[in-house]
User: Which sequence fits this backbone?
């Protein structure tokens, strides 16, 4: 998820002070230029007043909010059903049923409110490809698992592995909800620079939401063991990695202090990458 910039009048330009949760806003720079050592960024520009950009309102707010609302409604119904049927079948059923479904419903419904109250981006990448990648990377997650037609069965995992996947999915959803509640008004889908959030899971990695989403998707497709979900998962991972590249490029070129913060933590997996 994008947009992570917070103003701080006490933060010195060009560095991050220990314990400070924000960085200073970068000085304005002509569109298409970059600071020394960074590649040029094509056509990012500050957005105008709210209501003056119809495309931002429709594609950046209304459409994704409606998507999350529809899915959230479905997940609420599933959560209600899981509360009625998930108890008394063992702790794994409880974790994957009432607990997991409730967390997934929260993961879908929280963004609906965030789309309404979130901050206006200071800088936004308006190119078509980054926006398309971001939109597909968001929607394709909904197809991973059992939403695809049956396909070639590649493998079957043992019951203990399926139970581990259930727990992993629930933990990933809990982490994703934590990330959303930490981002709050900095949440977004398309590449944009709002505030740099360094609290919560962002103390550990640069992109905890993507890490949680990838983990949840993998834990969903492994028990299925079929070709189509696994191929879709591979595409999903590729889209998320592309989103990371677009977002980091935007932040690096828009906010000089971002590079200092980013050097202190991994992108997705601490100690690995």
Assistant:
């Amino acid at each position: 998820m994008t947009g992570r910039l917070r103003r701080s009048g006490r933060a010195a330009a060009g560095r991050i002070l220990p314990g400070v949760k924000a960085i200073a806003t970068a000085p304005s720079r002509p569109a298409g230029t970059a600071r020394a050592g960074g590649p040029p960024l094509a056509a990012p520009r500050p957005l105008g007043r709210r209501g003056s950009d119809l495309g931002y309102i429709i594609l950046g707010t209304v459409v994704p909010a409606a998507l999350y609302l529809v899915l959230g409604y479905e997940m609420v119904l599933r959560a209600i059903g899981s509360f009625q049927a998930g108890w008394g079948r063992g702790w794994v059923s409880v974790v994957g049923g009432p607990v997991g479904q409730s967390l997934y419903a929260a993961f879908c419904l929280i963004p609906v409110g965030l789309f309404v109250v979130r901050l206006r981006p200071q800088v936004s990448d308006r190119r078509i490809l980054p926006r398309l990648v971001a939109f597909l990377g968001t929607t394709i997650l909904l197809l991973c698992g059992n939403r695809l037609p049956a396909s070639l069965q590649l493998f079957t995992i043992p019951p203990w592995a399926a139970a581990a996947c259930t727990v992993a999915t629930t933990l990933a959803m809990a982490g994703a909800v934590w990330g959303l509640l930490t981002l709050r008004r900095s949440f977004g889908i398309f590449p944009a620079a709002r505030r740099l959030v360094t609290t919560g899971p962002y103390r550990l990695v640069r992109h905890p939401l993507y890490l949680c989403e990838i983990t949840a998707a993998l834990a969903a497709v492994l028990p299925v063991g079929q070709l189509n979900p696994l191929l879709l998962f591979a595409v999903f991972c590729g889209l998320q990695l592309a989103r990371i590249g677009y977002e980091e490029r935007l932040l690096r070129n828009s906010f000089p202090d971002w590079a200092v913060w980013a050097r202190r933590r991994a992108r997705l997996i601490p100690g690995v990458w």
